[in-house]
Amino acid sequence: MPAKIFYTLIGGFAGGVFVSSLLPATFFTGFFLLFLGAILFLWFQFNRPDFKSLLLLPLVMAAFGAGIFRYELSRNSGLEPVLQEKISETVTVKGVVIGEPDRREGSTRLKVRVENLLADRNEFLINTGVLVIAERYSDFEYGDKIEVVGRITKPENFEGDNGRVFNYPAYLAKDGIYYEFYKPAIEVLEKDAGNPIKAALLDFKNSFVENMEAVIPKPEVSLLGGILLGAKRSLGDKLLDDFRLVGVIHIVVLSGYNITIVAEAVRRFFGFLPRRAGLLFAGISIILFTIMTGASAATIRAAIMAVLVVVARYLSRTYGVTRALALAGFVMVAINPQVLVFDPSFQLSFLATIGLIYVSPVVSKFLVPSGFYRPLKEAAIATMSTQIFVLPFLVYQIGEVSLVSLPANLLILATIPMTMLFGFLTGLAGFVWNFLALPFGFISFALLYYELAVVNLFSKIPFASVSAPALPFGAIVAWYLLYFFLLKKFYQSSFAGLSAPRGRS
User: Fold this and answer.
1) Same-domain check for residues 403 and 480
2) Same structural domain for residues 11 and 90?
3) What is d(CA 168, CA 129) in angstroms, rounded to the nearest whole number?
4) Predicted local distance difference test score (pLDDT) of residue 495
5) CA distances (Å), origin 318, targets 302, 312, 324, 426, 503
6) Is the pTM of this model over 0.90?
7) In the listed set 175, 196, 217, which residue is the last one of a domain according to the structure?
8) Are 186 and 54 found together in one domain?
9) Do 440 and 388 share a domain, yes or no?
10) Among 341, 349, 330, which residue's Cα sits nearest to residue 169?
11) 2, 21, 115, 488: most buried, per Cβ within 10 A?
């Protein structure tokens, strides 16, 4: 597909989803624009072929309408009238735990797909999602069918530390969650009621984490679980605040950077197989790993791009990283349109990747000395590129800017690949014998101890983070338009035209 048409369709679709997320719209509006755009496109195509320059306009209209239509299909799809009448009352519901329990310092959070409501001596069949905030040491697992008795509430907006109101209901709705229970009475009715493949993957993950916990103490092993597997083990509020303060919170959870390392390792592992068989197994492994680690927005984005690399190599095609990023975004928004506006991790992941693609050549040319030690140079370029490009977003969303992020990331990111390697060997060896895992565990512990020491050191520096003034959304848009203008000038002067960086398969 020609690049202009490809980006026009994706941009129009994203625009429709964006507008529908913020403004009231209807199915009819989306369908009308989609139908009208398609008719105009066909008319220009067959009756006025000399007007080819105008063909993009009906395509934008059709894609915009499709975006509106898709978002309206997802709007409030989990609100149940019978539950709406019971808000703030004590009710009894039955459902299945559909995600890995999120164990935090003071509670365990369960995402539950509710199937039955018991009220007024009747049982109602319903289909909605609830967030159950249970006691910290609750022993629940993915796939448990549970009965919940407690006061049901609807999520409410709250004001963040930066004074901006956070749309918490929309944030939960993107995951299909529309109601909450706070520390209700819970009874397990049945085990293993979830997807057997996902259950097996999570069982393997939990066993793997237990192997690491057998030889590595806390909090180091909690950090390793987050880096390697996205394991939801609490690091404690104080330590998490330190990671945010220093600007390295992205290493606590499985990020796109970590997935990229895993994807490359998987591809090399299957290198002994015939080329196409190896690529096929690599693609399947990346998908299964993404499911096992919780499928966050950053993980899915990186996994889609990694799978596209595999597909390009399988078909012996050239891999265009910008087109792959756009396609990954389209797939994610088409599946769940609410992530575009209401999922900060989705937005941050894509902005960071754009910065890595387009800002890194600028940083490499003007900000990093040519004689810089190569491993540190690559880390410096990646860190500075992403930090520069996500800065407006962080100012708008969080209202704080870390002044020590660059040196902290330089000191930590260089050790992450080795941490992941020896952490993986620790967990794997633990399936054979814990004593066999000790040498790998010792090296992992040393690396993790060093990373935590760096965070602790920089978090104690006065003014490590500064509060930024609250800026209106229009100012952030203007900021990114300035970025676009400067990048366009740079690429025009350097390459005689803005071209997307490409990678060979």
Assistant:
1) yes
2) no
3) 15
4) 60
5) 18, 6, 11, 37, 7
6) no
7) 196
8) no
9) yes
10) 341
11) 21
In a domain, 497, yes or no: yes
One domain for residues 238 and 343: yes
Residues 139 and 164 in one domain: yes
How far apart, in whole angstroms, are the C-alpha atoms of residue 505 and residue 311?
A: 9
- 60 and 85 in a common domain: no
Tell me: do 174 and 241 sit in the same domain: no
pLDDT in tens, 398-414: 878 888 988 898 889 88
Query: Can you tell me which residue has the tokens 């499709």?
Result: 66
Are 49 and 42 in contact, with CB atoms under 8 Å apart? no
The continuous run of DSSP H or E covering 93 comes out as: strand 90-97
Whole-number pLDDT of residue 144: 96
pLDDT-derived band at 505 (thresholds 50, 70, 90) equals: very low
Rounded to the nearest 5°, which phi and psi values hold at 494? -90, -35
CA 482 – CA 484 distance, rounded (Å)? 5
CATH number, domain of 102, equals 2.40.50.140
Q: Is residue 291 part of a domain?
A: no
Contacts of 1 (CB under 8 A, 6+ apart): none
Domain count, the chain: 3
Rounded distance, CA 423 to CA 442, Å?
A: 10
For residue 202 the two structure tokens come to 């999570």
DSSP string, 264-319: HHHHHHGGGS-HHHHHHHHHHHHHHHHHHTT--HHHHHHHHHHHHHHHHHHTT--E
Cα–Cα distance measured from residue 203 to residue 92, given in angstroms and rounded to the nearest whole number: 29
Is 174 within 8 Å of 338 (Cβ atoms)? yes
Instruction: Quote the tokens at residue 52.
Output: 């080819």
E strand or H helix at 134: strand 122-134
Contact call for residues 402 and 464 (beta carbons, < 8 A): yes
> With contact defined as beta carbons under 8 Å apart, do 329 and 301 qualify?
yes
CA distance 36 to 59: 10
Whether 9 is covered by a domain: the verdict is yes
Residue 120 token pair: 């007024």
Averaged pLDDT for residues 12-30: 91
Q: Which of 275, 357, 264, 247 is nearest to 303 (CA)?
A: 264
Q: What is the C-alpha separation between 416 and 381, in angstroms, rounded?
A: 16
Domain for residue 299, yes or no?
no
* Domain boundary residue, one of 196, 228, 245: 196
Residue 468 per-residue DSSP state: P
* Residue span of the structural domain in which 91 resides: 81-196
Please confirm whether the linkage preceding 184 is cis (ω < 30° from 0). Answer: no
E strands, 373-414, where? 400-402
The pLDDT assigned to 499 comes to 47
The number of residues in the chain equals 505
